[in-house]
Amino acid sequence: MRSKETTDIYCTKEPLLAFHQRITFCLDLHNQSVKAMRYPPKSYGKDLESAEERREREQQDLELAKEMAEEDDDGFP
């Protein structure tokens, strides 16, 4: 009985190609993820109102709502 000789699998190109496919997949996934995380430009923050301006605007909105509620209450006896 004879057995087939065992050959070194790593001397072929098959493991190299499999490794290359895995690395290519990982790099493509990374590149797509980076493209998906598009950050707004630095000038984007300049357009937003500051926290103090937002508080003032909300305070004005509350005062206006109170005035409107008082006007509605005055109309009913």
TrEMBL record:
Q: Where is this region: Disordered?
A: 40-60
Q: What's this protein's name?
A: 26S proteasome non-ATPase regulatory subunit 3 C-terminal domain-containing protein
Q: Which residues form the 26S proteasome non-ATPase regulatory subunit 3 C-terminal domain?
A: 8-74
Show the GO cellular component annotation of the record: proteasome regulatory particle, lid subcomplex
Q: Name one GO molecular function term.
A: enzyme regulator activity
Domain of life assignment:
Eukaryota
Compositional bias of type Basic and acidic residues: which residue ranges? Answer: 44-60
Pfam families associated with the record: Rpn3_C (PF08375)
Any GO BP:
regulation of protein catabolic process
Naturally occurring in which organism (per UniProt): Lasius platythorax
